[in-house]
Automatic annotation (TrEMBL):
<keyword id="KW-0963">Cytoplasm</keyword>
<feature type="active site" description="Proton acceptor">
    <location>
        <position position="190"/>
    </location>
</feature>
<feature type="binding site">
    <location>
        <begin position="52"/>
        <end position="53"/>
    </location>
    <ligand>
        <name>3-methyl-2-oxobutanoate</name>
    </ligand>
</feature>
<keyword id="KW-0460">Magnesium</keyword>
<feature type="binding site">
    <location>
        <position position="123"/>
    </location>
    <ligand>
        <name>Mg(2+)</name>
    </ligand>
</feature>
<dbReference type="Pfam" id="PF02548">
    <property type="entry name" value="Pantoate_transf"/>
</dbReference>
<dbReference type="InterPro" id="IPR015813">
    <property type="entry name" value="Pyrv/PenolPyrv_kinase-like_dom"/>
</dbReference>
<feature type="binding site">
    <location>
        <position position="91"/>
    </location>
    <ligand>
        <name>3-methyl-2-oxobutanoate</name>
    </ligand>
</feature>
<keyword id="KW-0808">Transferase</keyword>
<comment type="subunit">
    <text>Homodecamer; pentamer of dimers.</text>
</comment>
<feature type="binding site">
    <location>
        <position position="91"/>
    </location>
    <ligand>
        <name>Mg(2+)</name>
    </ligand>
</feature>
<keyword id="KW-0479">Metal-binding</keyword>
<comment type="function">
    <text>Catalyzes the reversible reaction in which hydroxymethyl group from 5,10-methylenetetrahydrofolate is transferred onto alpha-ketoisovalerate to form ketopantoate.</text>
</comment>
<comment type="similarity">
    <text>Belongs to the PanB family.</text>
</comment>
<protein>
    <recommendedName>
        <fullName>3-methyl-2-oxobutanoate hydroxymethyltransferase</fullName>
        <ecNumber>2.1.2.11</ecNumber>
    </recommendedName>
</protein>
<dbReference type="InterPro" id="IPR003700">
    <property type="entry name" value="Pantoate_hydroxy_MeTrfase"/>
</dbReference>
<comment type="pathway">
    <text>Cofactor biosynthesis; (R)-pantothenate biosynthesis; (R)-pantoate from 3-methyl-2-oxobutanoate: step 1/2.</text>
</comment>
Length: 272
């Protein structure tokens, strides 16, 4: 078990690189609103990801594709208002950066200016290098994302583990080195074999944060609704539930409903 070697008053992109150098694991969770982000920040999480997974857990879409740049800015703005310590990273949504580096820069600038976030995250490697270069040249920190890239779900056709075959594994390793060379400050690896993820983490100097990528990387990220057990239907192998809020919240709401129907709420002590 790693032990924190330094107290960070405020997490920056440099903090994360230092944490890797000091063998300190990096904690990362998603948040999409003020109240949840405030709890996550106060709990000491290093990085808050305003993920395009908001498309799934906040809006009920099947994929991350429908969420727009305006939606992402809205969620990010609410998160930034809540934090004092965590680094806030925002996903660039599908369609906002893939086709045109100039559009990618405009999208990243909007997120940074309108939300006050600290960095952006993009999915992909060599195929989006020009967009990454353009954003970095403007002074905006970029986190990469390789392995299973949910914005490409219709290309893959499945959410299964990526890079199990040698050719795809080699491409992933090459892309990781490229992202480091371009100047990305960190990299998310999603749903790849643990041995490959560990190899990648050891081959580059920037932090590698895993989700379904084993324990040989520099940090971990989960969707907060998943780790809090708010949804009983999503059960991937990599998910550890730290609470069962679905059951707790359902019972609380049922109890409230019962008390309202019976006239027990509010009682004499709960009225003016």
């Amino acid at each position: 078990m790693s032990v924190a070697k330094k107290q960070y008053k405020r997490i920056t992109v440099k903090s994360l690189v230092d944490m890797k150098a000091n063998n300190e694991r990096i904690s990362m969770l998603t948040s999409y609103d003020f109240t949840m982000a405030k709890i996550v920040d106060q709990a000491g999480i290093d990085v808050i990801l305003v993920g395009d997974s908001a498309s799934n857990v906040m809006a009920g879409h099947e994929t991350t594709l429908p969420i727009t740049l305006d939606h992402m800015i809205y969620h990010a703005t609410n998160v930034v208002r809540a934090i004092n310590r965590s680094l806030v990273v925002v996903d660039l949504p599908f369609g906002s950066y893939q086709s045109d580096p100039k559009e990618a820069l405009r999208s990243a600038i909007r997120i940074m200016k309108e939300s006050g976030a600290h960095a952006v995250k993009l999915e992909g490697g060599s195929e989006i290098k020009d967009s990454i270069k353009r954003i970095l040249k403007a002074g905006i920190p970029v986190m990469g994302h390789l392995g299973l890239t949910p914005q490409s779900i219709y290309k893959f056709g499945t959410y299964t583990v990526r890079a199990k075959e040698e050719a795809e594994a080699e491409k992933l390793k090459e892309d990781a080195l490229l992202l480091e060379k371009l100047g990305c400050f960190a990299l998310v690896l999603e749903k790849v074999p643990a041995k490959l993820a560990e190899e990648v983490a050891k081959s580059i100097s920037i932090p590698v944060i895993g989700i379904g990528a084993g324990n040989g990387v520099d940090g971990q990220v989960l969707v907060i609704h998943d780790m809090l057990g708010m949804d009983h239907e999503f059960n991937p192998r990599f998910l550890r539930r730290y609470a069962d809020l679905n059951t707790i919240m359902t019972k609380a709401i049922q109890d409230y409903n019962k008390d309202v129907k019976s006239g027990d709420f509010p009682n004499e002590n709960e009225q003016y």
